[in-house]
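Aggregate trends can hide what the representation actually does to any particular protein. For completeness, the protein is quoted in full, as a sequence line and a line of C-alpha cells.
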Amino acid sequence: MLTSVDPDLIRVLGDPLRLKIVTLLARETLCTTHLVEETGAKQTNLSNHLKVLREAGVVETEPCGRFTYYRLRPEVLAGLSEQFAALADSARGAAGTKRACP
C-alpha cells in the first residue's frame, strides 16, 4: 500500500529556522531564552515559529515558573520517517515498472 507523506508537516519542517529548532530540541528540552541564544533569532520571530511547530504537533510545552520549555515529540518525526520509508519501499518495488508512452 502506498503511503503519502504529510505535506503540511513537510511544509512546517521545511523552514530553516524551524528545522534548526527541531534539531536543537532533539538533543534537549529548552526554553525560549535558550533557543534565542542558540539560533540568534529574535524572540518574537522564534515564538511565532514555535507556535507553528506546536500547532503541527511537533513540539509540546512544559511550563516552569515564568518560563516555557519546549520538548520535541519524537513519535511525530518517527511517523514521518515511516512514511518516507514506505515511499522508498514503493520506489524499490517499482524500479522495473515503466508506463508506455501513447
